[in-house]
């Protein structure tokens, strides 16, 4: 992945469903200029109100928890990234106001509930 040119690459991949619950992102790779607004869409389908997560995986490392929201209207912020648990729109979109080359990574949107630890997920590469 070339991060020296001031370009940030984003790749999205749908993973499977479990127990009827799932999260959805667009598939493909997205290129964003440094300093631009990053928005990674994540919508979910769940039988209950799930806990929602964003994980980040930097090159050569394992996945790390980035954001976690446990109830509707929770707005969570970490390292300049933010997401709001929108129950009405069934969404948990990830945003960062000014993306940097150092943010190049794989981003995973996931959900869980109190019964099943992991009910679904989607991957996003930056």
UniProtKB/TrEMBL annotation:
InterPro entries for this protein: Ig-like_dom, Ig-like_dom_sf, Ig-like_fold, Ig_V-set, TCR_variable_region
Cellular-component GO terms for this entry: T cell receptor complex
Signal peptide: 1-20
GO biological process, any: adaptive immune response
Gene source species: Marmota monax (Woodchuck)
Ig-like domain mapped to chain residues: 21-126
Protein name: Ig-like domain-containing protein
Entries under SMART domains matching the protein: IGv
Keyword terms, alphabetized: Adaptive immunity, Immunity, Immunoglobulin domain, Receptor, Signal, T cell receptor
């Amino acid at each position: 992945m070339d991060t020296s040119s001031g370009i940030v690459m984003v790749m999205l991949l749908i993973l499977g469903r479990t127990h009827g619950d799932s999260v959805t992102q667009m598939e493909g790779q997205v290129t964003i200029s440094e300093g631009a607004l990053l928005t990674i869409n994540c919508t979910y389908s769940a039988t209950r109100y799930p806990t929602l997560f964003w994980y980040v995986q930097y090159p050569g490392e394992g996945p790390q928890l980035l954001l976690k929201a446990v109830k509707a209207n929770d707005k969570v912020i970490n390292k300049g990234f933010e997401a709001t648990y929108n129950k009405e729109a069934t969404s948990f979109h990830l945003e960062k106001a000014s993306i940097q080359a150092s943010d190049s990574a794989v981003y995973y949107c996931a959900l869980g509930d109190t019964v099943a630890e992991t009910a679904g997920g989607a991957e996003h590469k930056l």
